[in-house]
Amino acid sequence: MAILFVSHFLDQVYEISDRLTVLRNGVFQGEFLTREISQATLISTMVGKEMGALDSLERASSRREVDRSGDPVYSAEGIGRTGSLEPTDVTFHAGEVLGIAGLLGSGRTELARLVYGADKPETGTVRMRGEDTQISSPARALAARIAYASENRRDEGIIRDLTVRENLILAVQAERGWARPLPAHEKDALVEKYMSALNVRPADPDRPIRNLSGGNQQKVLLGRWLATQPEVLILDEPTRGIDVGAKTEIMEQVIALADEGVAIVFISSELEEVVRLSDRIIVLKDRRKLADLTVDESVSTDSLIATIAEESAPGRPGSPHPAGTGVSS
């Protein structure tokens, strides 16, 4: 039996395949025997740029300095909801990339939904720029300049039967109100700006979004929220299920947005991505916070795993310990 195997997980491709075919933007790039091509060369062929792009991205992130001296753009004390998240303190600073790390079921998405008001918090107080506020619904979150790109791109993100144009302007139109349609020239300007900035391919705003690749759908969703000019942007698994090139472009956008002063909350099950991009990392497990770490040379994927695993050490089942135990902060 001949097997055609399509995957973004290159280790699996190398494990089971005999031959590789590479496509980029719908164009054939080459065919190779698996044993004769390195992963670095393969990725360069897929992306159309050298692997150094991710390394330079990591270096750019490590050179960033975040000013945490003033009021955080968002802070919550004891925010929580029964069955979703134990009362938790969180702060987001302007220009900071805050990574949220944890295993499946740790409470990462639950925290994002509470911050955005998609789930209403049962406990806690929230401040925006030092002033008490309530974020009890997505409408209030948008009014407070908080945007949230869900991890469930297909069911909670894109509207499959609408065009790229319609999907991209959706949040701006919702914020403006459906009784006041955006003028055509404003729509065109927004669509052109963000399709160009995010390199959406194909560059056809009237194409149904369901016909785009996962990576390009993710770019359109990112453009949708950028069009609202957020001060806090929550990205839940923004690189899941997309190719290496799209991942690199989205990561570059994350760093650029932080440099412009946006507070970015970056949630990913890929710990390497969290460490690469983040200025600070909150570690969650069993729906509660274990640690709040400032990223430096001591923080790595191994140290994050050790922090998570320490909670399960024999003789310490579920026992709380001070944030940062086991990892330098």
Can you describe this structure?
The protein has 329 residues and is of the alpha/beta class. The chain has 2 domains: 1-46, no CATH class; 74-310, Rossmann fold, CATH 3.40.50.300. It contains 13 helices and 12 strands. The strands form 3 sheets. A 6-stranded mixed sheet has the order 8-9-10-5-11-12, sandwiched between helices. A 4-stranded antiparallel sheet has the order 4-3-6-7, with helices on one face. It has a two-stranded antiparallel sheet with strand order 1-2. The N and C termini lie far apart (53 Å). Mean pLDDT is 87; it is low at 312-329.
Number of domains: 2
Mean pLDDT: 87
Tell me the number of strands: 12
N→C terminal distance: 53 Å
Share of helical residues: 25-40%
Categorize the overall geometry. Answer: globular
Largest sheet: 6 strands, mixed
Topology as a string of helices (H) and strands (E): HEEHHEEEHEEHEHHHHHEHEHEEH
C-alpha-based Rg, rounded: 21 Å
Output the CATH homologous superfamily of the largest domain: P-loop containing nucleotide triphosphate hydrolases
- The third-level CATH topology of the largest domain is Rossmann fold
Structural class: alpha/beta
Concise overview:
With 329 residues, this protein is of the alpha/beta class. The protein is 36% helix and 21% strand.
Q: How would you describe this structure in keywords?
A:
329 residues, disordered C terminus, Rossmann fold, 2 domains, alpha/beta, four-stranded antiparallel beta sheet, six-stranded mixed beta sheet
